[in-house]
Design goal:
Layout (H helix, E strand, L loop, with lengths): L5 E2 L4 H23 L2 H17 L5 E2 L2 H57 L3 H11 L5 H8 L3 H37 L1
Antiparallel strand pairs: 1-2
């Protein structure tokens, strides 16, 4: 015989009764499934939090069955997530050296291309760019050091960035796509 399901609104008092009555059983089940006290407590807390948030919309015929089933499902979800995290961690650990070597090689190549692009700039433009980027000087400080206007400094930086962008565009499009793919696969 099927038990009829009725919609009930769980009051604060009923919620507290559920908590007092079922908390230990739920915790014991989660602890047995997971093996970690803190994680088991968190799972039980999540189930009760969900019960409270959904207290006006739930249709229950058996609160004990509902709560224990919820803990079982949360525990299985937790184990599945933990297994996935461990798999990703193992993948990263095994591939870490290769990933960082590739990344380091990519960085050196990019730095070399950037240096070549900067070296191809006209003398004044290169000086302004290096003072701005390498020395970290403000436009005003650069203007004072080189005896030019701040407007000229802005022009040279803009020109330098434009030339560098054009020189690195072809190189970067290929390697950025590769870098993003590697990053996506490892993280």
């Amino acid at each position: 015989m099927k038990i009829p399901i009725r919609k009930i609104a769980i009051s604060k008092r009923q919620f507290e009764e559920f908590f007092q009555t079922y908390w230990k059983r739920m915790y014991a089940f989660a602890l047995k499934s997971i093996g970690d006290e803190d994680d088991a407590k968190e799972i039980v807390q999540d189930v009760f939090k969900s019960l409270w948030e959904r207290r006006t919309d739930l249709q229950l015929s058996d609160a004990e069955r509902y709560l224990l089933r919820s803990v079982k499902l949360k525990s299985l979800e937790f184990l599945r997530n933990r297994s996935n995290k461990q798999r990703h961690h193992d993948l990263i650990s095994n591939s870490e050296t290769e990933f960082y070597e590739d990344n380091n090689l990519y960085y050196k190549e990019l730095k070399n291309h950037l240096d070549n692009a900067v070296d191809s700039l006209p003398k004044q433009c290169k000086n302004v760019y290096k003072l701005s980027r390498d020395e970290g000087l403000t436009n005003k400080e650069i203007a004072t050091n080189l005896s030019i206007s701040e407007r000229a400094v802005e022009y040279h930086i803009s020109k330098a960035l434009s030339v560098i962008k054009i020189r690195l565009k072809k190189y970067c499009n290929i390697h950025i796509a590769r870098f993003l793919l590697i990053t996506f696969l490892y993280f």
